[in-house]
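One thing: mind reviewing this one?
=====
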Amino acid sequence: RMLTVGGLAGIFETLLTQPLVYIKNTLQYKQPISWNPMIMYRGVAINAGSIGPISAVQWAANGLFVQIYSKWSLQPVPSDSVAVGLAAASGVASAILVSPCELVMISQQRMGGTMWAQTKNIFRACGTAGLMRGITPTAFRETGWTTSFLGFAPVFKKYLQQDSRFFSANEVAASAAASLLAGQIAATLTQPADVIKTRMQADRGVEGPVQYKSTWRTARMLYREGGAGIFFKGLLARSLRCMAAVFILGEAGTTLSAFF
């Protein structure tokens, strides 16, 4: 059930927020932004096709971790702090799926071509290891994302409804407010990891020798290039995407749960 709900919610969210993903990535690897929808939606197939399963895996992993913890601790409902920790663990589990899919999407956004053509180019140049470029910063980023989406957002919503008559009577408004808070936290805390990941994945080793060979080396090169500020390139677009994603995924998940 959680796999189905998470997958459908993830696809719906991706189709709505793909332009923000494109703007964020373009700013991070320093290319001019095109406002042509055909270009902004390049890579949407691999992105939606990956985010659906990724969201499914994250939701299902979080549900599984909650069940395991409940059986082990004999507590039917985890405390808020434990729930946040379990949400973080589900992000780590999903990184192995997220990283290669986003690598192909970024390659399409930069170079055009089909999903299959870009996958073959990367594989020919770097082998299987090339498809896993940027997995370490991806794991850090996904941990922050699931911590905020599956951990912080439900907790914020609960406290808002407990402390406010308005939010108690307006569940959608409570979800929106919690999404703004959780989404901004996710975007800000994980932005440096996202910038490192994007730069590593844009440097695929197809057009020339690989420059960004490791997470730490990439971080040092970026700092020399633009100081601390470079790690927050594209933060506005990503903040908007994260806030929208928390709300859309949460509401879509709640709605879809009634059908499954």
